[in-house]
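Deliverable D2.4 — example input (structure tokens):
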């Protein structure tokens, strides 16, 4: 059997805190004047402080490499590609609403979800010092070597 390893790339969608406009050119809302619904789910580019995996990016890469299982059926069929997951990081750091946005079949989407469900609680996103629910998209690359 071929020696197998998988390479993953997790792309995080970061934005810098700005005073008038976000880096995408979209206006930044001053919630101190308008208030906000604490049950709303914010997109990553609308938060002041983005959610962070405990220990940071390097710790997340280590967690993924340790816990992501390349499905046997994907290996046998030489399936490679990117699975895109969407999830909500709750105010307490737990993960919910985990969905596959893009799948490459042969169990890779299910393997990605199973790995994310094992993740520890994250440090949640914040707006003006208040913890918020944040939608997060995580691409995971499956690659045979």
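Example output (designed residues):
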């Amino acid at each position: 059997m071929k020696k197998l390893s998988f390479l993953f790339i997790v792309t995080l969608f970061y934005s810098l805190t700005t005073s008038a406009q976000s880096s995408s050119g979209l206006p930044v809302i001053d919630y101190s004047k308008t208030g906000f619904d604490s049950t709303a789910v914010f997109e990553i580019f609308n938060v002041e402080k983005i959610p962070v995996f405990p220990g940071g990016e390097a710790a997340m890469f280590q967690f993924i490499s340790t816990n992501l299982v390349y499905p046997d059926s994907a290996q046998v069929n030489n399936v490679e590609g990117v699975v895109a997951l969407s999830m909500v990081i709750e105010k307490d750091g737990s993960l919910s609403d985990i969905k596959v946005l893009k799948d490459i079949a042969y169990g890779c989407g299910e393997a990605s979800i199973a790995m994310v469900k094992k993740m520890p609680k994250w440090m949640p996103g914040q707006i003006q010092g208040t913890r918020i629910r944040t939608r997060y998209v995580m691409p995971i690359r499956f690659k045979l070597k």
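Confidence is low (pLDDT under 50) at residues 1-27.
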